Amino acid sequence: MKVKLTNEDIRKSLEIPSPSFPKYVTQIINLANQNAQGTRPRVVGQLTDLIQEFSGKRLDEWEQWYLQRYPEAIRTAKEKILSMVENLKDAINKIDENMVYEWAKDLVIVQTFIGLQFQEAILRKAAEIKGIAYRLSERTDESKGIDGYIGNTPVSIKPDTYKVKRSLSETIDVKLIYYKKVKNGIEVDYSELFE
């Protein structure tokens, strides 16, 4: 039998009251914290390790134990987060109808297109590095797992997670180019192609 305990259920079970925040406030504070990195280990300590070291049982004991070790951590986190909240307030005041339209258009049109078409950019870059031509595959090639050619070499473009799955039944008998999505684009591994 499986039972789901929500965070609220756990709070009630431990008799810990839930703070009350106005609608959207926690989302804004979370966003500010992500940007400010106010609760990173360098600010508040490695909490997963600290809670393992803690031998008490009650919330008030944990609070006292933690604050003895990191007396300024919560204040420092608050200052970092509050500063970012101020930055977000300033940014929100700059948002207008045209800006929202441009953002939505970029997401729906441009980012979707880039997401679907980045394979050609990967092929183009490999061809540029090798100083030869490239071309996208044709339908008959695609059924063989070929995404394109660098010169006369057929290649298949796969996410880096495919390396783990490579032992599965699918066999692709061509050079593989792996990519990994990173913050502002993709990181491409051309190792097999340049062996």
Strand and helix map with partners:
Layout: H1 7-13, H2 25-36, H3 41-44, H4 47-53, H5 59-69, H6 73-94, H7 97-130, E1 134-136, H8 139-142, E2 148-150, E3 153-159, H9 162-165, E4 175-182, E5 185-189
Helix pairs in contact: 2-6
Structure report:
With 195 residues, the protein is an alpha+beta fold. The protein has 2 domains: 7-94, no CATH class; 116-189, no CATH class. The chain has 9 helices and 5 strands. The protein has helices spanning 7-13, 25-36, 41-44, 47-53, 59-69, 73-94, 97-130, 139-142, 162-165, and strands spanning 134-136, 148-150, 153-159, 175-182, 185-189. Strands 1-2-3-4-5 form a 5-stranded mixed sheet, covered by helices on one side. Helix 2 packs across helix 6. It is elongated, with a radius of gyration of 25 Å. It starts with 6 loop residues before the first helix and ends in a 6-residue tail after the last strand.
Give a quick summary of the entry.
This protein is α+β, with helices and mostly antiparallel strands. The protein has nine helices and five strands.
> Secondary-structure element sequence?
HHHHHHHEHEEHEE
| Major sheet: arrangement of strands | 1-2-3-4-5
Structural class: alpha+beta
The helix count comes to: 9
Largest sheet: 5 strands, mixed
- Termini separation comes to 52 Å
User: Overall mean pLDDT score?
Assistant: 89
Low-pLDDT segments: none
**Beta-strand share of residues:** 5-15%
Helix content: 40-55%
Assembly state (oligomeric): single chain
Shape: elongated
| Count of distinct structural domains | 2
Taking all Cα atoms into account, the compactness measure Rg is 25 Å
What's the count of strands?
5
